[in-house]
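Recall the central idea of this unit: under ordinary conditions, the amino acid sequence of a chain determines the structure it adopts. In this exercise we apply that idea directly, starting from the sequence alone.
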Amino acid sequence: MKIRSILIATLLPLTINAEMSITALERITQEVAPDILRGGISFEEQHKNSSTIKEHFNTLIAEMKRNDPKGELCRGGGFYLSPRYSYKDQKQEFIGYSGNLSFSCEFTSIDQHNAMMNGIEKIKALSIRTVQEPLSWGVSDKVQTSTRQSLRSKLLQTAKSQAELFSKETDMTCKIAAVSFEGTQPIRPMMMKSSMIADSALTESPIQKNEELSLEANVNYICSKRIP
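Accordingly, the structure predicted from this sequence is:
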C-alpha cells in the first residue's frame, strides 16, 4: 500500500484569534489481485435456410443454460440473421443467411472456461464457427467495491495522522474540516495479444498480474491556537 500527501495550499496569516487552513491532496494506492477471467464468445454460421441457423443457435443457447442455469457466468444469447447476396452481371441473387450469436462471460478460472467450451464443441453443428475474443484477467465489481471502501477508510486514517503531524509542526491544534474524494482510478486488465478463431475448445490462461487501485481526496485541515 502506497500513501502520498501533497500540500497544495498556502497557509493563511495568523492573528491572535485566527485559524489556519491547510488543504492537501492525499493519495493512497493498493494492489488488487484479479479474480475474474473475462472474454467474449460468439458463433457464426452461414446457411441457405434461416430455420436451420435458428435451430443450431437455440441448441447452443440451451447448452449454455445447462452449464450456467442461473446466468452467473455468461450474459447475452441474442442472435441476429442477415441475408446474403451474390452479384453477377449487375444482378443481385439471394444465396442464404448469415447468423451471429454472442455471449459476454466471466469465469473464475481457465478450467471453468475450458469445461464450458468443451461441452459446446461437442454439441454444436459442424457448420458453426466459434470465435473467441481476447481473454483478460480483471477485478470483479464486488472486489472493487470492497477495495474502495477499504481505501476510503485507510485514507481517512492517513488524513488523521497528517492532522496530528500538522499539529506538531505548527504547535497548534489541527483537525480535519472536510474531505472530498476524487474517485478511484480504473484498473487495466491483462489481456491476451489478439482474438482468435477457436481450433480447439482448450485455451491457455493469460498472465495473471496484480493491479493497482488508487484513491485521492482533497483534505482541508483547520488549525487553531492551543488554549493554555
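The chain is about 25% helix and 45% strand.
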